[in-house]
Amino acid sequence: MPVTIILPKFGFTLESSTIVQWLKNEGDSVRAGDPICEVTTDKVNMEIEAPEAGTLYGFRYKAGDEVPVTEVICYLARAGEKVGEGLPHPPTPLSINGEGESVRSDLALRLPSSAVVPVSPVAQRMATDYQIDLAKVSGTGPSGRIMRRDVEVALHGMVADPVGKVRATPAARHLAQQTGIVLAEVQGSGPRGRIQSADVQTVVDQRTVASNASLSTQHSAHSTFKLTGMRRTIALRLQKSYQTAPHFFLETSIDSGGIESLRTKLKARREKLSVTAILVRVCASVLMKHRIVNATINDDEVTLWEAANIGVAVALDDGLVVPVIHGAEQLSLSATQQKLDELTQRARTNTLHINDVTDGTFTISNLGMYGIDRFTAIINPPQVAILAVGRTQKVFVPDENDQPVLKSFINLVLSADHRVIDGANAAGFLAELKQVLEEPALMVW
Fold first, then answer.
1. In angstroms, rounded to a whole number, what is the distance separating the alpha carbons of residues 90 and 101?
2. Exposure on the CB side of residue 45, measured as CA atoms within 13 A
3. What mean pLDDT do residues 331-345 have?
4. What domains are there in the chain, each with its CATH number?
């Protein structure tokens, strides 16, 4: 029986990957472990390897195609098997599509016309509830699969508002009234085609652009580009995070005198210790006492992690990547610095592995080296908190005798997901973090 080769699920949040290039051709013989193709995941490129020796055939996607995880990408005939015979059926594990629907690749709805149309369970249930003929619905999912959004499009044209009005949220109606938009001319993106405020805003923005273009009498040089690859991943993930996670922010400043003293002593011994490395190690230690901050959320399920896997945002030319220091609470400061340097270097040379960017439980974003005083960061899903770090600033403050003393401070802003973390939880974490950073010796306690 031939072997099915599927697109693996690299990490627990990945829903699809794009095939960057095929490294083998149809009919090529491969050995176990030979790379077959290169795919791009959330942040890094990975190679899919042959599970055993044989001959490749039945390529189902081409370079540039976006493929849902667990989908079959090609087949492999073992020694002695004839290529193309005994074509196996695709595997049927549950996967999650971009609409949050559980999908089985072998699920299909038989229609009266005897045609077989693949349909997701959510779309099938909606069609049954609203008596939609799926034979008249065009599927936009993989292989023409009918998805929830396709049924909603059909409903938009069939279901009238109970009182004869256009279906719209109160916020959408208010915005439409303020901006003079006719709701009947707006395409709704909500359930059953309901118009959201974002839909109205899109129309407003489009008309503003058109108006500005018509008033312009000069042509200026410009360039455009499409969000693809890493930039597209960043856009989708952070947009979803900011829209679905109710962010709240807590800010504090730390006296960085203790940190500077420690770094000065180590520098005299020709040993490097960065502020980021200290932050990683201290955050890891404090997270072990505030486990609700060291968590991830998927749908309504919250996971509290036993280890502090600290992600550190690294800026690249075309975006950013967040390599993860796993089990940071068990590392010494020197080991933390060494691991941070290694991951940063591999991030900038595009040589990270998938394990280097998965299973993070907390993220640190430090823009102090760019001269930024303070900022708020968007939570890196599915995590529930992120720490934004500003630059070191010297400020005169009164001492115990009310005399001015010059001290150094670093601004910290914690972004937290209110679905999981309450204000008191976040404040407790930030207070202890401040205490340990101001007295680094407490790390050994």
1. 19
2. 12
3. 94
4. 3-91 (2.40.50.100), 96-156 (4.10.320.10), 170-211 (4.10.320.10), 230-444 (3.30.559.10)
Please say whether the beta carbons of 3 and 79 come within 8 A: no
In the predicted model, what is the mean pLDDT of residues 308-333?
92
Residue given tokens 């390599």 in the structure block: 323
- Residue 335: other Cβ atoms inside 10 A: 14
Q: Which two tokens stand for residue 211?
A: 């108006």
| Best CA proximity match to 351, nearest among 380, 323, 315 | 323
With tokens 């109205």, the residue in question is: 200
Q: Phi/psi at 388 (nearest 5 deg)?
A: -100, 130
pLDDT at 129: 61
Instruction: List pLDDT tens digits, range 344-390.
Output: 998 888 888 888 988 999 999 999 999 999 999 999 999 999 999 99
Give the Cα-Cα-Cα angle 272, 276, 278 (nearest 5 degrees).
70
Peptide bond into 91 cis (omega under 30): no
Higher pLDDT, 422 or 46: 422
The answer to whether the predicted template modeling score (pTM) of the entire model surpasses 0.85 is no
Phi-psi region of 97 (alpha: psi -120 to 50; beta: other; left: phi over 0): beta
Q: Which residues contact 348 (CB under 8 A, 6 or more apart)?
A: 314, 316
Residues 8-37: b if buried by 16+ CB within 10 A, e if exposed = bbbbeebebbbbbebebeeeeebeeeeebb
What is the C-alpha to C-alpha distance for residues 146 and 150, in angstroms, rounded to an integer? 6
Amino acid at 168: A
315 touches 230 (CB < 8 A):
no
pLDDT tens readout for residues 88-127:
544 443 333 444 444 443 334 434 333 456 777 667 767 7
